[in-house]
Amino acid sequence: MDRSVLQEIIKMLFWFVLLMFGCVRASELTFELPDNGKQCFYEDIIIGTKCTLEFQVVTGGHYDVDCRLEDPDGTVLYKEMKKQYDSFTFTAARNGTYKFCFSNEFSTFTHKTVYFDFQVGDDPPLFPNENRVTAVTQMESACVSIHEALKSVIDYQTHCRLREAQSRGRAEDLNTRVAFWSTGEAFILLVVSISQVVLLRSFFSDKKTTTTRVGS
Description:
Elements lengths: L2 H18 L4 E9 L4 E8 L4 E10 L5 E6 L5 E8 L1 E7 L4 E8 L8 E9 L16 H68 L12
Antiparallel strand pairs: 1-8, 2-7, 3-6, 3-8, 4-5, 4-7
C-alpha cells in the first residue's frame, strides 16, 4: 500500500474516533425533582450557535413538569406548563449564560424523575478537507454514513431506555396499588366472615327464660 494512502487512512480514522467521542458539546442528565421543587441548569453559549433542548418525565405523578428557558438578559425563549415531553431548537442571539429550569412546584407530594438532553452546536464535518479527490474517497463516504448511522442508533437506544424506565415505573406503581387493594379486600372479607359467624351463632343460641311466682 502506498505510504500517502496509509497516512490518509490513519488521519481519517483519527477524525472518526474524535467525533464519535465528544466533539459536540452536550449535556445529558437524569435527575430527581422533589415535590414543590425547582432545578435550574446553566450553559455558556456563543452567538449564532444552534442548540436543542429535549426533555421527558420518566417517573412520578402524571408524568408532567414545567419547563422554562431564558437567555442571558432574562428573556423567556421557551415556556411550557405540565408537559410530559418536548423538544425545542433555537439559535443563540447573544453571547452569555443561558438558563433552563424544571419546576415541580405544582405538585404537593409527588416527586418526579426527569431526563434532559441539551445539545450545543452542530457536528463539524467528519473530514475537514473534503475538496480533494483521492483513492480513499469511497472509504471516507462509508465512514460518514457509519457515523450518521451510529448517531441514530444512540438516539434510538436513549429513547428506548426512557420508554422502558417509564413503563417499568408505571408497572411498579400499578403493582403497588393492586397489592394494597388485595390487602384491603382480604381484610374486609375476614371482617365480614367473622360478623356472619357471630350473627348465625346468635340465631341458634338457647335463650334462658326466667319465671317468677306471684304469691297470693
